[in-house]
Fold these 3 entries.
Entry 1:
Amino acid sequence: MKTLAPYIFASIDAGERDRLRLLAQLLDPLHRKALSTTRIGPGLSSLELGAGTGTVSAWIAGTAGPTGQVLATDLNTEFLHQAAHPNVVVEQLDALRDPLPEARFDLITARALLHHLPGWAQVVKKCVAALKPGGSLVLVEPDATTSVLNTDPMHHRFWSAWCRWGGTEGVDYRIGHKLTGVMREAGLEVTDTSIDVPFYQGGSDWATLYAQTVDATMPRAGERIEPDLVEAFQRATVDPSQWLCSFGWVAVTGRRATTKREGGSWCPPRPR
């Protein structure tokens, strides 16, 4: 079996903290909107995988009230401890390798995590088993197929090369459109889907986020991507005359059924 390189954003320096904060600022609205399609409310027991800076876990905790609890997990919890909340419990967890308790949570969510995991479909199955009957799984992941919408051919070529490099590292930057199929195969009813495709100006927050993300990978990705493509990308992200499209962000909500049929599989109750 191929041995994959370590997680490409494993740094815990100030630059990675700032990148995660900007990611949260830009994606929290989409994530909260998707979470709001679930039965979120007081007393909720929830789990966030790859919780980053903890902004989503804190928001869920505020919605669940004093009787609810959120387990916020990450491979490295350095930045999670900066987003403390009375109803948030922080734990280190490897989503790919560590077990989850069965039928424990009303809600499980993850954002910008699964595309880094070569065995991500197994993580989805693990999450389904950890949901209570009627519980929901909310996933938010990128899909770089939207980079074809760029009018600048060099920018599109850069993202195509970057995605090919990601594949050599076990990272799937086109995961978004695959989520619904895997969630259905895992036994969930898909109840809501959406995609946000940011068109952004050079020099904007979105441009800064993607520039920071690419800069963090260059020590490894730079050997696989033509220098002229990297230079064209860097120029475009700081040029206010450029309007760009990189990743779409896909949000999918699935619900575990609430009753049990003979044979042990979960399914919705039949109408009377």
Note: The first strand starts at residue 45 and ends at 49.
Entry 2:
Amino acid sequence: MRTSHRALGVLSIGVLLAASVVAPAQADDLNVPPSRSIVGSTNTGLSGPLAIEIGPNGKTYVTNFASNSISVFASNANGDVAPQRRISGPTSTLTNPRYLDVDKSGYIWVPDDTKVKSFAPTANGDVAPASSFETGMNTFGLAIAPNGKIFVGDSGTIKRFSPSATGPASVERTITGAPLSDVRAMDVDRHGRVWVANGFDKSVLAIDPNSSGSPTVLRQIKGSNTGITHVDDVAVDRAGRIYIVDEFSKTVRVFASNANGNVEPIKVLGGPATGLAQPAGIAVRDNLEILVANYGSNAVLTFNRLFAIEPSAPRSLKVSGSSKSANRTISWKSPSANGGAAITQYRIVVKKGSKTLVTKTVSGSTRSYTVNRSKLRNGTNKVLIHAKNSAGWGKTSTKTFQVKK
């Protein structure tokens, strides 16, 4: 039974079925090794890593289902390294910690049987929870919305609680019924939509966070074209792309930001080089690095981003000529990081206070632009420049200069 499978360990059924399930071949499969791996038996303390999350401080948070603990690693942790903090012991009262989340203040929230427990941002060792509340069900998945609301789920039900919930807490919303059937993990995107890993239904749902009773389904990714064989966890990146881990096919499948229905993934990360073995949890950093809790090998795997991001700021911005020169030449060097795609344009803006004097867009190969003194204003002027690649406009460099008329 599914409930027994959950009580004993998240992936026990997956071990039996994985050999018989084969995902459809994909032309865009990426069989690449991780860029970093937290793995080893001496220091990591990883034991059945089930869920993974990135805190507001960039650190990596992992639930160890098999050892009733939570590990916190440095953002760049690699190899057989010890966590910076580890919450474990009888005082913590952790038993079967599952999918977790970290709020904007750094509090760690984790479902633990029928309760949700929170731990302080600096919690370490055998420490008591900072708070705890009853959910009224065998809680499995959890996600925190930008407004602090806490969503928990299991089987075919999702409940919403206040962040101040404690004890036998009041439920703000109960969302239940088809197509919810096997709620595992969840993520809340920047628009507040709740994305649900609907495990054995082989689907991913986006639902309205204010649903009550039957879910208001905003989108559903499901069908033979998706190649999904099981959904263990879901994450949404800052561009709105949807990432799922599929333990049976040992893949990370990525869908377009507007994906809906029976659609193919735009990227599939999988194959022997990846080392994916019963992947259970997933998180995506702002720089689009992908982190996977690899239950099957007691490891946390980090993969390089699969998509371009905006470039960094142009370097060495200068304005040549004296304050009385007839022309002023603005020059710069290309960004130190192009974000993984060619720079196609630069935009130059010259301002005096809040008034825009010059706006000019030039090609990605250009490194200077000359402005006639007549377009400038007496006093302190400022030039701003940023670069564009296929992901969009990047960070801005600024420089002030003086004009005398």
Note: Confidence is low (pLDDT under 50) at residues 1-27.
Entry 3:
Amino acid sequence: MKKNTLKNNIRILIFSILILFCFSINVYGASYSIAANTSIEVGNTFKLSISSGDVTGRLNVSSSNGGVVSIISDSKAWVEKNTVTVSLKANSVGTAVITVTPATLADDKGEVHLGSKSITITVKEKSVTPPPPPPPVNNGNDGNSNTSAKSSNNYLKNLKVNVEGLSPRFSKTTLNYALTVGKDVSNININASPEDFKSRVSISGNNNLSDGNNTITITVTAENGNKRYYKITVTKVVDISKSNAFLDNLVIQGIILDPGFQSEMLEYNLGKVASDFTSFNILTFPKDEGAKVEIIGNENLKSGKNTIKIKVTAPDGITIKEYILSYEKEEGPEVIAEENSLISLEKASNDNFIKRTWRKIKNNSLIVLMYLFILVEFAQILYLYIKLRKMTPKKSLDIKDNMKNRKNGPKKEIKTKDNMLNEEIENLKGLKENPRVELKTRSALKNGNDNK
């Protein structure tokens, strides 16, 4: 009876653990997130990113104030363990709350019920570039005619080289470029024209290239003397087939690159992030599987404007491409150095911890009950086990005594037979010495048998 009770308790324990495991998967396995640029100028369109994590289904997107921010694409988004985008437009100055509400979401284990998530969008006036100041007017006192101010335009109009592979594509605001050439290339011919014909262009470093990295500098000097420097990093390699250091794709969770990722575009702006944001989830896919990727500056993000560098080294170990990700992190609350304030903060932190713990217990009450049930069952099993152990020594002692008696029995029987055999041998010896005794003994035995 006690053994059956023990087996039943073990079965109940195993069944409870299985239920707890299944329930835990449903509680903690499902999630999704949303992200968007929270500060937009009037008239601009932007994207709302929805990352589904490990769930699949439909979500509804709505705006609290369509006059400020409206949804210009389908307001019903279908996610399937990926990231989708919804197009929005800033119509007027103000704020609007964009809400994403799950309609039907499910993970691998079945239907999952998740709450809605919201993000507040602030629409501001469109910035207007002030017109350039009018040129100074000569008052005529010195006898000269009116003259205009000297130009400060130091941009390039175009940039071309006689070797294919310049990246990224030329843009007058992009200052850094990269180029990979073979070992037989010693000089690079460059055609660079200024945007303002009054500017001057000078080029250095494009001749007598050495193995490895070389820097070509193109200096544009405006009419007023202001200078702008364009740089081309030329990597001279022995085997150009092993010099591919470009990324094939770049994915950042919760961020939509605008414009989209291009292998030859090396600079991207990730926008603003919250003050408690610590790091980006960055996935890189190099074109050459043998390339080495190193992400620098993606830990403990600093407040203000900063950059993250993605350094890609080709299999040849020489060719390097660097992708620059710029971001702006909002300033966090000021640190209070006073002792009383620190104590208050510590107390508030402890209170928040207790509240968060109590909230988790309430939200997962079934799990807590399961754990309590398991503890009770375990205590009961332990009690039965100890009780059985106490009863075992007495039974073992009885068994040992029985075994001892059984062992002693055969020994006693064997000893008796030995004694009888010894007596018989003594009798035979006596018969040899005195045959009459033998006859007498036999006659006595015979008479005794007859009497019986």
Note: The radius of gyration is 46 Å.
